[in-house]
Amino acid sequence: MENKEIVVWHEMDGAGDSSLQFIELICRELEQKEQLKFRFVQMNISPFLEKLRNLENEPEKPDVIFIAQDMVSLEEASLSEVPDKFCSYMEDKIWDSMKYKGVQRGVPYLQGNHGVIFYNKKYFSGMPETWDEIIQLEKENVCNFSMDLKVVYWYLPFIYSTYGNPIANGEVTMNAENTKEAQDFIVDLANKGKLQSHTAISTMLDKFIAGEIACMINGEWLYEYLNEQMGEDVGIAPLPKMGNKEMSGVSSSVGMAFPNNSLSGPKKKELETFIDYMLSKGVQERWLLEHKRIPVNKEIFDEMDKLEVDKNIVTSCEQMKKNYFLINEECMKDMWQQGENIIRKIEQSI
User: Fold this and answer.
1) pTM of the full predicted structure?
2) Cys-Cys with 312: which of 119, 165, 180, 236 at CB 3.0–4.6 Å?
C-alpha cells in the first residue's frame, strides 16, 4: 500500500482559507471507505508555484494539487489530461474552465471564486447597493472601503464595468491609457480618504473583523471564516452600481490537477475514486451548506432554492451570474501584465 499513498499539495491562502480542513476530512473519509492513504504538503503560494515550475527537481512529486483554474497553464508541471467522463457532474462552461490549449488539465470542484463586497451590518441600515452609500458613510475611525491595490485581480471588476471585456479574439485590448475611467474612480476614492489599501488575505481581514473597515472587496471564499469571526454582523452585497450601471466582475473555478502525468500512472484508479467522491452530490452539498462555498455539481446548484442556503451565499451567487467567466486563453498572461502597468499608473496618482 505504501506505493499507493496519494501525495496532496495544497497552497494555503492565509488564515481565511478554510477549505484545507474540509479537503483533509474528505480524504480521511476515503481512507476509511476505500482504504486509500493520503499525505498532505501545505505551503504558501510563492514556494508552491516555484516547486511546480521546477517539478523535475523535486525528490517527491505530488499526485494531486489544488489550484485556481488559471494555474493549469503551468506546462512545466506536466499536468495529466483528464478524461471527459467526469464532465457530466457539471455544466460545460465550468468543466471547460480548466482546459488549456484545448486539453482538459484539471477537474473543477468549486465555482465562483469571485470578488464580492463584504460589509459590516452595524454600519448600514441595509445592504449597500451603490458606491454613494459606501462613500457617504460617516463613522469615526472607520474606513469606508478597502481593496488590495497591489493585486491586479481586484481591479478587474472596475475595468470590466467601465471598459468592458478586455479580451477580444484571443487578444488583450486594455492598457494603462484606455482604462482611465476605472483608474480615475479608484484614485478619486483614495485621494478623498475613502479608500485604504491593505493586503487582502491578512491585514484587511483583521481590520474588517475589528470593525475598522466598513466595506471591502474580497474573495467569496473567505465568507466561512468571516462568518465564524463576526456572526450576523457580516453581510455580502453585490458589487455596487457605478452610477446607473450594474457592476460586473469575473468568476472562475478552483479544482484539482494531477502533476507529472499522475492520472495515467500506477495510482490512476485511486485518483479517479478521489475525483468521483469530491464531485459526488453528498460532498458537494456539504461544501455549500457546511462550508459556504459554491458547488459545481449541477444537481446541487439547481436545487439551491429548495435547500436552506445562507442568504449571503444567495447574494454571492447572484453576483456570480452577472460576472464574466474567465477562460484559460493564452493571452491571459498579457492581461495580468497590462494590469501591472495599470497598478503602477495608479500608484503614481495617489
Assistant:
1) 0.91
2) 236
